[in-house]
Design a protein that fits this description.
There is one protein chain. The protein is mainly α. It folds into four domains: 2-120, no CATH class; 133-260, no CATH class; 274-531, no CATH class; 532-583, no CATH class. Helices cover 63% and strands 2% of the residues. The protein has a three-stranded mixed β-sheet. 38% of the residues are buried.
Length: 589
């Protein structure tokens, strides 16, 4: 070994001092990069197996289990993540290569948030008015089923639902006992998504049955028959009784025992927990008072733009009168869910005609489908991602067409569906980045895309322009309402009135949205704060680069980063602006 090292050392010593320093820095970065890579790769592999997402390690059993959610397992995870943080502490981020410094910052924040969730025992409140552990299970049926093993693993998970629910109920009881629960004020009717499964007469009508409808031809007809019967038995004898037990607990214990306060800060360790939620969802360390102030400023600015659009329409009444007109005039509403889906598809195709001028497109495409019936009553108007744009066709009088262009831009292309597809294609990035979703970045981009629709010519009437502004106002109002409820002591009626009086959202949407903010603190803050930064950065790029500004390159810079924190986004886009200015000879002008 020495006879190979000595010539290498001799060669190194013959280099000029500056070259020796550069070589040392390169070697140091390589060593630090390797140490960091070992840490995140080991933890990520463990995490995938821990949460039952491991599919390529040859361990079939890891695919048959639902995640362990009991307190003991949660504490074991916390110990693991604290050890990871200790290892990260021993790495100087400045010693890493540029790309690995980004990875380090994203990964460290990810682990800090995971650890904080356990420290605050957030697992004792595993649902809100928007999403829940029981409704999330139905997404298992949307996976890829290509082999008999895939079906056997799925059936095993279905059979594990009773134990999984029993452990979740233990956690929910612990939360109730210490006053850490979803507020009682937003729980009425939330059991419908449980009841629809528990009380279904035919298990083949459930979303869980979907994988068995069209099975791969590579599985023989006899094996298909056996698998279908096993699936039917698991749904009827395991899954439905588990939902029935959960329904009984929800109605008889959880709802009567839920806290009567609204504010996150009113719960045990509530102030610290709310600040942690703000850090997780916004990636910023902002005080609730500051966020509230930003929200009020944005509300005032957008209201001025809304008034100008009302004048453009020729409407002579008050702002409240215009909102009443929009909420009730039949011209803005469809009669069937299929009509709404067709309008969404038409908007999406008009976007397709323009989008290539604004960003480099991913290979993946998306489908447009209605929101599942069991969750539609309390879901938002739509949601995008994972190759799908879900459009809520429940309660059509609450789904105005003037909002649909903004919704489609946000949820499909160039919003979530496109952003998620591009993030998945960043093969050079580690899996913890490709498969991660940072709300401030993703929702900020989605809201920015609504505004980008103006450049793209997607809004054809003043009413659609007002719909875009009402969506922007909706996100600005979230800054005010979320902090109002969880920090300033607002009542539910106060929050409802603020959203109702400032937007053209339907009464159904106003109610479901406010209840979402009450039960899911801080998530709603991510949209506007992320969009404000992207708009600010674009303005800086346009002012710095003038006629050399390339909007496609600007967007590609943002999208190719994948999902990042807002501080990282700001630094990387500013670096892009500086480099573009240098290439254009604009530095020093």
């Amino acid at each position: 070994m020495k006879r190979f090292l000595i010539p290498a050392l001799a060669l190194f010593l013959t280099l000029p001092l500056a070259a020796q320093a550069r070589a040392s820095r390169t070697d140091g970065a390589a060593a630090a990069d390797a140490a960091f890579t070992r840490i995140h790769e080991a933890e990520w592999a463990w995490r995938q197996k821990e949460f039952g997402r491991s599919t390529d390690d040859g361990d079939f059993s890891s695919r048959t289990r639902l995640p362990a959610v009991d307190a003991e397992s949660q504490q074991a995870r916390l110990e693991r993540w604290e050890k990871v943080l200790g290892k990260l502490d021993r790495i100087d981020p400045e010693s890493l290569s540029h790309e690995q410094r980004i990875n380090y910052r994203i990964y460290r924040a990810q682990i800090e948030n995971l650890a904080a969730e356990v420290r605050f025992r957030s697992y004792e409140m595993p649902f809100n008015s928007d999403s829940s552990f029981w409704s999330d299970l139905s997404f298992m049926a949307q996976g890829r089923f290509r082999s008999e093993d895939d079906y056997r693993a799925y059936i095993a998970r279905l059979r594990n639902v009773p134990g999984y629910f029993a452990r979740q109920i233990v956690n929910l009881r612990a939360g109730l006992a210490r006053g850490f629960s979803v507020p009682r004020a937003v729980l009425d009717g939330r059991d419908v998504s449980i009841a629809m499964i528990a009380e279904a007469k035919d298990v083949e009508s459930l979303a869980f049955w979907k994988p068995f409808k069209d099975m791969p031809v590579s599985i023989s007809e006899e094996r298909q028959r056996v698998l279908r019967e096993a699936g039917r038995e698991a749904l009827r004898e395991k899954l439905q009784p588990a939902y029935a037990d959960l329904l009984r607990f929800f109605r008889e214990e959880y709802v009567p025992g839920a806290r009567t306060t609204l504010a996150a800060e009113a719960m045990p360790d509530g102030k610290a927990w709310y600040r942690q939620q703000i850090r997780e969802y916004t990636t910023l360390d902002l005080d609730p008072e500051e966020i509230h102030r930003i929200g009020l400023q944005e509300v005032a600015r957008i209201r001025t733009e809304m008034d100008a659009v009302i004048t453009e329409t020729g409407f002579k009444g008050s702002f409240a009168g215009f909102l009443a007109f929009l909420r009730t005039d039949p011209q803005f509403y469809v009669k069937t869910g299929e009509e709404l889906l067709m309008h969404a598809a038409w908007i999406s195709k008009r976007v397709d005609a323009q989008i290539g001028r604004y960003m480099t497109l991913p290979r993946a495409r998306f489908k447009i489908i209605p929101v599942p019936d069991d969750i539609a009553p309390f879901w938002t108007a739509g949601r995008g991602g994972n190759g799908t744009y879900w459009v809520n066709t429940y309660n059509l009088p609450a789904r105005p067409l003037y909002n649909l262009p903004a919704l489609t831009l946000h949820e499909s292309d160039p919003g979530h569906a496109l952003q998620g597809a591009i993030a998945a294609e960043q093969d050079a990035q580690p899996a913890f980045r490709r498969e991660n979703y940072i709300s401030a970045y993703g929702e900020g981009w989605g809201l920015y895309c609504e505004k980008l629709g103006v450049d793209m010519g997607i809004y054809r009437t003043p009413y659609e322009h007002f719909g875009r502004l009402t969506y922007e106002m909706w996100r600005a109002a979230r800054l005010v309402i979320d902090t109002g409820i969880h920090h300033k002591g607002w009542s539910r009626d106060q929050a409802l009135a603020f959203l109702r009086d400032n937007t053209a959202l339907s009464e159904h949407e106003v109610t479901t949205e406010v209840d979402r903010y009450i039960s899911w603190p801080a998530q709603a803050l991510s949209y506007k704060l992320g969009e404000i930064l992207i708009v600010k950065l674009r303005r800086e790029a346009e002012e710095t680069l003038g006629e050399d500004f390339d909007i496609k390159a600007f967007h590609d810079t943002i999208l190719n980063l994948g999902s990042v924190t807002l501080p990282v986004l700001e630094e990387e886009v500013r670096a892009f602006i500086e480099e573009s200015a240098r290439k254009a000879g604009r530095t020093g002008r």
